[in-house]
Each structure stands twice: as structure tokens, then as C-alpha cells.
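User: Can you fold this complex?
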Amino acid sequence: GQNIDQPTEMTATEGAIVQINCTYQTSGFNGLFWYQQHAGEAPTFLSYNVLDGLEEKGRFSSFLSRSKGYSYLLLKELQMKDSASYLCAARDSNYQLIWGAGTKLIIKP
Amino acid sequence: IAGITQAPTSQILAAGRRMTLRCTQDMRHNAMYWYRQDLGLGLRLIHYSNTAGTTGKGEVPDGYSVSRANTDDFPLTLASAVPSQTSVYFCASSEDPGRGNTEAFFGQGTRLTVV
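Assistant: Here's the predicted assembly.
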């Protein structure tokens, strides 16, 4: 079957760095997405990886290892507004997104 | 403002009633999707449409139907609502699901409670 695993909840301190891991098993693979979702709001796109390596976009970076079925989202210089759920999604051979349950990130001052 | 709009934003519905959730996008995206999001579970695909005139079943299609008469609209119908359909429903669209970094854009969601 197809499956996405990510931690349920993480806590970090304002100004620090946090890494949110995601492992995936899909029928075929056509890219890995990260989305941010604030409570009561819609998910919004953060990053996309299809090749191995690190993609950097400001304070956020995303890494992919296709051979390991593994990705992480790295958030630097954490701000209170980064408190949200972070959703990992892998696109399968039918180009459909398979979603993880999300990681709730709590930022403490 | 360009984007994707859902209506209603919330609804309380008696079990057994019929309900249509509306979704409209003005980005001329080919693909549209309906997801439900339940606590502790990931977004689950109900139905999708890769282009106007075509639809497909997702992971949890039972009890739901969709149509795609044109590019912009993708309504989701619950023929006879049951309490297990209580959820937050998100409509999404993307330019072309088969092409590279085609991010999905989401509507603001419809919170549906079936009592």
C-alpha cells in the first residue's frame, strides 16, 4: 500500500532550527511536496523536490533522498508565526498526491 | 482576486439530506480535486477531475459524486448524508497534474457537520 509517515507533533523554540522528517512508500514517484497549514485554514504550498538533494527557499529548505524514500523540511530562525501543521505529500505514478497526517509544530518563546 | 472559492464555509446537515458543496476556480486550471480532512488523518482524496468532462474516483469515493461540466466548477454532492461524513472538505486545483512542480491551490474549506 501507499503510506506517508511523519511525526504527529514537535516543539521548538523561537529563533531555533527544526527539522521535520517524512518517509514515504508510493506506487511510483513523481515528486515530494511540503505544505503549511495554519489552524482553521487551507494548506499552502511550501516546496517541491523531485531530484535528490536540498532545495533552499529563504528560511525554509527541503531535502529528498529517493533511494531512501525520505524527505525533511528544515525551518531556520523560527518565528511564532511558523506555528502550524506541516504536511508532507508524495505524488504517485498516477500523479495523485498521497498525504501524510501532518506534523503540528509548536513554537515556544 | 484570483483563486479557488468554496461555498458554504460551514454547514450543519440532518442525516439523510442531500447536500452539494460548491467549488469554483478562476485560474483556468485543468485539474480539480475534492479532499476530506479528519483529525489525525491526512487529506484523503474523494474524487478528482484531470480535465473538464472527466472525473475519477479517489481513495474514499463512497457516498459522494462529482461533475465537471466546465473548467471552472467542480461541485461535490452527498446524496444522503451520514454522520461519518462529518469532516472538513477542501477543494483544490492544479494546472496540470502530470507536469513537474504543479502545486495544488486550495479553497478555504467547508466544515460540514452531519447530525
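The mean pLDDT of chain B is 94. The interface with chain A takes residues 35, 40-45, 48, 58, 90, 97-98, 100-101, 103-109 of chain B (CB under 8 Å).
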